[in-house]
Specification:
Number of helices: 5
Distance between the termini: 29 Å
Structural class: alpha/beta
CATH superfamily: HybD-like
Oligomer: single chain
Strand content: 15-25%
Strand order of the largest sheet: 1-5-6-4-2-3
Mean pLDDT: 89
Number of domains: 1
Largest sheet: 6 strands, mixed
Radius of gyration: 16 Å
CATH class: Alpha Beta
CATH architecture: 3-Layer(aba) Sandwich
Low-confidence stretches: 188-198
Helix content: 25-40%
């Protein structure tokens, strides 16, 4: 199921955070939350995921139940995505994983946020086959899909991407505040490790 709303809509944070929380509560068997911001810092249009990761990392750095992978400093992209997911599966096997990524779409949908209740299929806009990410994912449509998608991503407004990242971060942060009290307490010593990025 997909839920969508424009990032400038005043109801966007409340609407999508509620949907995200409800999705978690249908399977509340996790002991931590992992957010994976997929993308790169090389193209402004593809920096949405890492920007969200950096914002959330600063906000939840001291929370041992929240793990952030994919920031502007240490992005998760096509070259290291598989390695990152292998690490998450090994070290955070009972985590609820939320993926965040930019995507391209029809012109009139630019600025739309999509919360999709299934794993993220990263790299589709650039015709890349990458492993699925997360139990659920948030995407922001940053520009128009076309024959030169790399160029489109290069010439996307960074201000626009940053504004959208702020909204997505607020959505995830609000949902996290609701979900954390429902997380199962960690039992294994490895789960007590301090927060870290990829």
């Amino acid at each position: 199921m997909m839920h969508h709303i424009h990032y400038l809509d005043k109801k966007s944070v409340d609407y999508l955070s509620e949907k995200l929380t409800n999705h978690y509560l249908t399977h509340p068997e996790y002991n931590e939350i992992v957010v994976v911001g997929v993308g790169t810092n090389r193209y402004s249009g593809d920096a949405l995921g890492p920007t969200v990761g950096s914002i959330l990392q600063a906000q939840f750095n001291d929370n041992r139940q929240i793990r952030i992978f994919g920031t502007l400093e240490r992005p998760v992209h096509a070259l290291n995505l598989k390695k990152t997911l292998t690490y998450i599966a090994k070290k955070h096997s009972r985590a609820y994983v939320i993926a965040v990524d930019a995507c391209l779409g029809q012109y009139y949908k630019i600025g739309t946020l999509q919360l999709v209740e299934e794993p993220l299929a990263a790299g589709i806009s650039l015709n890349k086959e990458l492993p699925p990410v997360g139990q659920i994912h948030l995407k922001g449509i940053v520009n128009n899909h076309g024959p030169l998608n790399h160029k489109v991503l290069e010439h996307t407004s960074l201000t626009f991407v940053n504004e959208m990242a702020e909204v997505i971060s607020r959505i995830i942060a609000k949902s996290i505040q609701e979900v954390v009290p429902n997380l199962i307490p960690a039992q294994m010593p490895g789960d007590q490790a301090t927060n870290q990025t990829s």
